[in-house]
Amino acid sequence: MLSLTGDILNWLAAGVVFPLMFLPMAALLARSKHSALILFSIIATVVLAGVAFARLAPVLSVTPSMTQIGVFFLFAVILSALTFTSGGARPIIARLSPMIEKIVSASARAVMWLLLAMALIQFGIVVLRYVFGINYIFMQESITYMHGAVFLLAAGYALLTDDHVRVDIFYRGAPAKRKALIDFLGTYFLLFPVCLLLLWTASPYVANSWAVGESSPEASGIAGVFILKSLIPAFAILLAMAGFNIAANAGDAMRGRA
Fold this sequence. Notes:
Strand content: under 5%
Radius of gyration: 21 Å
Helix content: over 70%
Shape: globular
Number of strands: 0
Low-confidence stretches: none
Order of helices and strands: HHHHHHHHH
Largest sheet: none
Mean pLDDT: 83
């Protein structure tokens, strides 16, 4: 059952999240219904390039089957058809962007209260250890769990609101359209590939942890390491969702739209 659930989630991430990433690019390259054809061409090119790379790199031990390739193209056809019937990529982006922003923002607001909990629990750990000589392993491990949740689930929001640490030389003083171009290219050539790589490499890692019900090595620790590891693919998906909105806004800026 766990294996089937994991496969379904992987296919949803690969078949739905992956094609949606190219909507802002299709909206930038073509207008109205022509963007549907551009979208399908982009997805097909990327999928075929990935298959060729996998076949030419046997060290990766990844050989996509015809069924897997067919599923990718099926999702691409469905999304392209929806784009065509909606009048282009821009109407779909206009509907998706507010939803994505709400999801990314809600995940950050949900975990921000963990910062207060972390401070209170850490204070309690110090008092218990140095005043009463008592030590609870599960309290110490809870700090790690909460810190991981805050970092991984709020990273997409920090990227979306540009609140992350930025070290730049040329970007800050660049014109608005050049900034948009940097954001657009950076999203497609740096952010999205890293998100896909995280999903690809983390899937078996998380699946194995769920299969054995991985828990703390300490007897009195928290029996939920598999839950903590599940935050890794969640981090990649939230980051990709934030990147979708950044690419969409950058595309609008390059086309001279507000």
